[in-house]
Amino acid sequence: MTVAASTAALGTSAAFAQAMVDEKDAQAAALGYVADAKRVDAKKFPKFAAGQSCGNCALYQGKAGDKAGGCPLFAGKQVAAAGWCSAWAKKA
Ligand code: SF4
Fold first, then answer.
1. Ligand 1, residues at Cβ distance < 6 Å
2. What is the CATH number of the domain that holds 22?
3. Predicted model pTM
């Protein structure tokens, strides 16, 4: 928990210095990342369920209320809290 907390703090302090992930980036395209979960292709990603977003993903490093935050799958960039990708995992 301590590691997660300090990682989140780091992510927050760098929030405005880091670029947002572009959906067209190779890694983003490979994972099916979209900046707005409303645009997830449900046919392509049948496991997607409404309500899932980066903001409630186990890998998301932003704080509650942040519009964007870090994600270990996109090192050095920020994902939108409202975004989604196929690696989404339920926050414990
Ligand atoms: S792993 Fe989670 S936080 Fe990272 S881009 Fe995918 S849904 Fe968003």
1. 33, 54, 57, 59-60, 71, 73, 79, 83-85, 87-88
2. 4.10.490.10
3. 0.82
CA of 60 to the centre of ligand 1 (A): 6
Question: Is 20 buried (19+), middle (13-18) or exposed (0-12) by CB count in 10 A?
Answer: middle
Task: Look at ligand 1, atom 4, and give the residue with the nearest C-alpha.
Answer: 71
Residues 27-67 have pLDDT tens digits of 999 999 999 999 999 999 999 999 999 999 999 999 999 99
CA of 64 to the centre of ligand 1 (A): 15
Q: Which domain holds residue 24?
A: 18-80
Q: Sorting pLDDT into bands at 50, 70 and 90, what band is 16?
A: low
Question: Cβ(12)–Cβ(68) under 8 Å?
Answer: no
Instruction: Tell the residue number behind the tokens 């490979």, with chain if given.
Output: 30
Nearest atom in ligand 1 to 89's CA: 2
